[in-house]
Amino acid sequence: MSKLTDYPFEIRPLTEEEGGGYLISYPDFAECLSDGETVEEALANGREALKETIAALKATKRPVPRPNSGGVASGRFVARVPKTVHAQLTTRAKSEGVSLNALVLSFIAQGLGRSERRS
After folding, report:
1. 3, 24, 35, 95, 106 from 51: Cα distances, Å
2. pTM passes above 0.85
3. Nearest CA to 85 among 106, 102, 100, 98?
């Protein structure tokens, strides 16, 4: 049986016209979307939406997709960040003697590790 954390998700900032905050979606579940004011809130709301989506599929005896059935993870993504955040990341990467990509990857891995311990 798959765990919620096995399902890939996509998260993106919402524009001011869209109401701001962040949108989270799950490629394996076209009908599962959520949002939040912060990334953390969007992730928490997304997990809850995913639980409810899976429960609804099971209740109606519909199949629950396996993780990554919505597409193969490419290992690549692009994120737009405010210029100030980019400047801070660049400065930190230089001070630590690593590439910007390596720094951001380490932050993502640390964040995922913390969220998995909480689940």
Report:
1. 10, 14, 15, 41, 28
2. no
3. 100
